[in-house]
């Protein structure tokens, strides 16, 4: 009798635990499709997508930086053509590895293919090789949180010194000189970088190295190298820390600069400091040169641009596919999807999601290349 | 204690009763015994084979990475596998893993023992049951949930404690605080302590319940107070059990991944102060670097995993040695 009562109590506890868990998972399974941010205008554009004989299912993997853009595109494309596209977003490195192992139809990457990766791709691209197609641009915003300061202008040398822990207080003369009339508090600067390996770190440090080599004497790469500072995982993690910590500064993709995180304006040497906006990023990508050979469209950005309204702290992410020798059963769908992505409608969706469209003359080359894929 | 009783055949008796025949059967080599012997021996061997296979795989992949490493694998303060040649070292990770685990143990073990003693010897029975249930439930919470709680609740509320420690103990150097976000080894240690508390408490509670009633009654009869009973009868009896419970907890703390990755602000340098953000642990580093790592990067992470594997083996081996030396007390385990 006593035992039974004990059991019943255990049962009741179990029931509470189970129903609690159910309630929690119910919250978790909320529809996240609004994250795509596709608006009415974009939905109407779905009618313009050419499907050809695209069919079946596409697997893709790669850069997490362009995941939101891909999600928005996939939503439109699937509606129009009924092709399922599964983009995993597990990181550029993982994406390229999956591609060279022949597991995915195309990969996304934050940086252009390295020579050894091109060599590896010849295994899966019968008679051809992997090529880079620039599809998504993105401004990297540097957000700050200093109580009492609403606007801040910095140049690359000062940024480099801040992130290398050489400037450690907000009332440093170097910062004051760039911000006349702004009352800077005496507050310790807490620079935040990424703790995981990241294409955002890679592109941010590339910019600092290209423009302020003297103050940022590192090799660059996906792992953070400079001294000191604190770190957090993912763009969202860095943005969260900047928001919570007075005196913090950190870098992340523009879409994370919201809810009260203010991005700095960049003093590039142009007539006026440049703000981190989608249009300004596109303008800076327009200064880039195509350095890929053959059909490869890898870009070399001009980080030292002083053009008015060009924000050169940008990253360009690529889609990677075979120029020749794509798998027969996925070729049609891959081409149709990439064609849509590079189309005017496809690029228009980017700005709605805080990404920068690729400038007209470069995207025109991308379109020609896509038509030639086989 | 005395294993002979189980394995040896009992001496033959002239007129065995039915009950005695049954008991004799347990030691004899009947088919069931042989099957069971085979199964248990097979499981034991399988375990060793699996361990050897894991060690072999880790060693092979680690050797690939270490042969390409341009820095000293054991002393370098950097982790940069994307460049040519790659440079990486585990000094920071060894330090962080050990320090965070020590902090966790220092906090968790006394509290766990105190809770276990309270539940077995002080709490009224009506209270001890429900509390034990709650502790069991705590042990079942996934570590990422602790991590989220740590990042969203624990970290923002640590400033008071940090300021206090800096004011009164800052002179030691270990507790000085530069005012960074409290995402440091101390916060990680506190979170790990909370995570390993249930397992240490539960095992200790079981051990303290096994203390023979006679020991306690004897002590009481000699005029001991309740505290003296615990000090002289309960704790010595349960010591080896508490040690193995602590080792279970330590194992979890050494290998904890997601909670540390969520709460810590990892950097590749060592902070002398427990309160300054920075440092890293093996498991956290593997979790946060794996997704974007290239081929060499993965092998380098596997090499660091091998070191964690060895550290864990050493710790467990050490714990077993300590327990073996205290065998005379052990009624409940070892």
Query: Fraction of residues of chain A in helices?
Result: 25-40%
Question: Strand content of the residues of chain A, in percent?
Answer: 15-25%
End-to-end Cα distance of chain B, whole Å, is 9 Å
Mean pLDDT of chain B: 87
The SS-based structural class of chain A is alpha/beta
Fraction in beta strands of chain B: under 5%
Indicate the radius of gyration of chain A in whole angstroms. Answer: 23 Å
- Please give the domain count of chain B: 1
Low-confidence stretches of chain A: 22-45
- CATH class division of the largest domain in chain A: Alpha Beta
Order of helices and strands of chain B: HHHEEHHHHHHHHHH
Number of strands of chain B: 2
What is the CATH T-level topology of the largest domain in chain A?
Answer: D-Maltodextrin-Binding Protein, domain 2
Q: Per CATH, which architecture of chain B?
A: Orthogonal Bundle
What is the H-and-E element order of chain A?
HHEHEHEHEEHHEHEHEEEHEEEHHH
Pfam families (chain A): PBP_like_2
InterPro entries (chain A): ABC_phos-bd_PstS, PBP_domain, Phosphate-bind_PstS
Family (chain A): Belongs to the PstS family.
Keywords (chain A): Phosphate transport, Transport
In short:
The complex is a heterodimer of chains A (374) and B (334). Chain A is of the alpha/beta class and 374 residues long.
What can you tell me about this protein's structure?
Chain B: One of its GO terms (cellular component) is plasma membrane. Chain B: It is a multi-pass membrane protein. Chain B: Part of the binding-protein-dependent transport system for phosphate; probably responsible for the translocation of the substrate across the membrane. Chain B: One of its GO terms (biological process) is phosphate ion transport. Chain B: It is found in: Cell membrane. The complex is a heterodimer of chains A (374) and B (334). With 374 residues, chain A is of the alpha/beta class. Chain A has two domains: 57-137 and 291-298 and 315-372, Periplasmic binding protein-like II (D-Maltodextrin-Binding Protein, domain 2, 3-Layer(aba) Sandwich); 139-282, D-Maltodextrin-Binding Protein, domain 2. In chain A, 39% of the residues lie in helices and 17% in strands. Chain A is built from 13 helices and 13 strands. Chain A has helices at 2-28, 40-45, 67-81, 92-100, 115-121, 156-163, 173-178, 199-211, 234-244, 278-285, 328-342, 344-352, 360-371, and strands at residues 57-62, 84-87, 106-109, 130-145, 153-155, 190-194, 230-232, 248-253, 262-263, 265-267, 289-290, 299-300, 314-322. In chain A, the strands form three sheets. In chain A, strands 1, 2, 3, 4, 6, 7, 8, 9 and 13 form a nine-stranded mixed β-sheet that branches. A two-stranded parallel ribbon of chain A has the order 5-10. In chain A, strands 11-12 form a two-stranded antiparallel sheet. The termini of chain A are far apart. By secondary structure, chain B is mainly α. Chain B is 69% helix and 1% strand. Chain B has helices at residues 4-7, 18-27, 31-68, 91-122, 125-139, 143-154, 159-169, 185-209, 213-221, 226-255, 258-263, 282-289, 295-325, and strands at 79-80, 87-88. A two-stranded antiparallel sheet of chain B has the order 1-2. Chain B starts with a helix and ends in a 9-residue tail after the last helix. In chain B, 37% of the residues are buried. At the A-B interface, helix 1, helix 4 and strand 7 of A face strand 1 of B.
């Amino acid at each position: 009798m006593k035992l039974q009562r004990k059991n019943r109590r255990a049962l009741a506890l179990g029931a509470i635990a189970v129903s609690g868990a159910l309630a929690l998972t119910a919250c978790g399974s909320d529809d996240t499709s609004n994250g795509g941010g596709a608006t009415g205008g974009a939905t109407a554009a779905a009618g313009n997508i050419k499907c050809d004989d695209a069919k079946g299912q596409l697997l893709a993997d790669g850069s997490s930086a362009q995941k939101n853009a891909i999600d928005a595109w996939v939503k439109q494309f699937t509606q129009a053509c009924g092709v399922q596209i599964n983009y995993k977003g597990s990181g550029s490195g993982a994406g390229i590895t999956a591609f060279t192992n022949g597991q995915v139809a195309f990969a996304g990457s934050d940086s252009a293919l390295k020579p050894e990766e091109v060599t590896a791709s010849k295994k899966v691209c019968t008679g051809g090789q992997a090529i880079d197609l620039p599809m998504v641009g993105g401004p990297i915003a540097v957000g700050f949180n200093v109580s009492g300061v609403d606007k801040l202008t910095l140049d690359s040398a000062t940024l480099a010194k801040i992130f290398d822990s050489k400037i450690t207080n907000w009332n440093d003369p170097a910062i004051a000189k760039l911000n006349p009339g702004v009352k800077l508090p005496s507050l310790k600067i807490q620079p935040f970088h990424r703790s995981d390996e990241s294409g955002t770190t890679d592109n941010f440090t590339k910019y600092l190295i290209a423009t302020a080599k003297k103050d940022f004497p590192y090799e660059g790469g996906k792992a953070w190298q400079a001294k000191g500072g604190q770190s957090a995982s993912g763009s969202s993690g860095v943005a969260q820390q900047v928001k919570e910590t007075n005196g913090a500064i950190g870098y992340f993709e523009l879409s994370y600069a919201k809810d009260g995180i203010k991005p700095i304006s960049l003093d590039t040497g142009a007539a006026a400091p440049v703000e981190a906006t989608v249009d300004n990023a596109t303008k800076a990508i327009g200064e880039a040169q195509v350095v890929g050979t053959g059909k490869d469209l890898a870009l070399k950005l001009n980080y030292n641009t002083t053009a008015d309204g060009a924000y050169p702290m940008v990253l360009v992410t690529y889609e990677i596919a075979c120029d020749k020798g794509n798998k027969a059963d996925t070729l049609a769908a891959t081409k149709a999807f990439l064609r849509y992505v590079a189309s005017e409608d496809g690029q228009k969706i980017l700005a709605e999601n805080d990404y920068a469209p690729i400038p007209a003359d470069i995207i025109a080359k991308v379109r020609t290349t896509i038509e030639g894929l086989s | 204690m005395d294993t002979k009783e189980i394995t040896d055949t009992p001496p033959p008796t002239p007129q065995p009763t039915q009950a005695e025949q049954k008991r004799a059967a347990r030691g004899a080599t009947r088919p069931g015994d042989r099957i069971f012997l085979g199964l248990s021996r097979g499981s034991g061997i399988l375990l060793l084979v699996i361990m050897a296979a894991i060690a072999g795989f880790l060693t092979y992949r680690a050797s690939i990475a270490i042969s390409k490493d341009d820095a000293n694998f054991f002393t370098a303060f950097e982790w940069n596998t994307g460049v040519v040649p790659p440079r990486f070292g585990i000094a920071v990770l060894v330090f962080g893993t050990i320090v965070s685990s020590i902090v966790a143990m220092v906090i968790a073990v006394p509290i766990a023992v105190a809770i276990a003693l309270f539940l077995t010897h002080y709490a009224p029975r009506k209270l001890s049951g429900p509390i034990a249930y709650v502790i069991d439930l705590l042990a079942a919470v996934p570590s990422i949930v602790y991590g989220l709680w740590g990042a969203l609740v624990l970290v923002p509320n640590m400033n008071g404690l940090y300021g206090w420690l800096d004011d009164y103990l800052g002179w030691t150097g270990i507790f000085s605080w530069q005012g960074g976000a409290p995402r440091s080894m101390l916060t990680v240690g506190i979170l790990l302590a909370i995570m390993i508390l249930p397992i240490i408490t539960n095992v200790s509670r079981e051990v303290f319940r096994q203390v023979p009633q006679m020991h306690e009654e004897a002590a009481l009869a000699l005029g001991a107070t309740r505290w003296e009973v615990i000090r002289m009868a309960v704790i010595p009896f349960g010591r080896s059990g508490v040690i193995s419970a602590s080792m279970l907890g330590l194992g979890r703390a050494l290998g904890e991944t997601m909670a540390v990755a969520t709460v810590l602000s990892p950097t590749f340098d060592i902070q002398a102060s427990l309160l300054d953000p920075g440092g890293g642990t093996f498991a956290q580093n593997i979790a946060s670097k794996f997704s974007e790592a290239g081929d060499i990067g993965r092998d380098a992470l596997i090499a660091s995993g091998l070191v964690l594997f060895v550290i864990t083996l050493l710790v467990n081996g050490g714990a077993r040695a300590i327990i073996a030396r205290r065998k005379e007390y052990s009624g409940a385990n070892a």
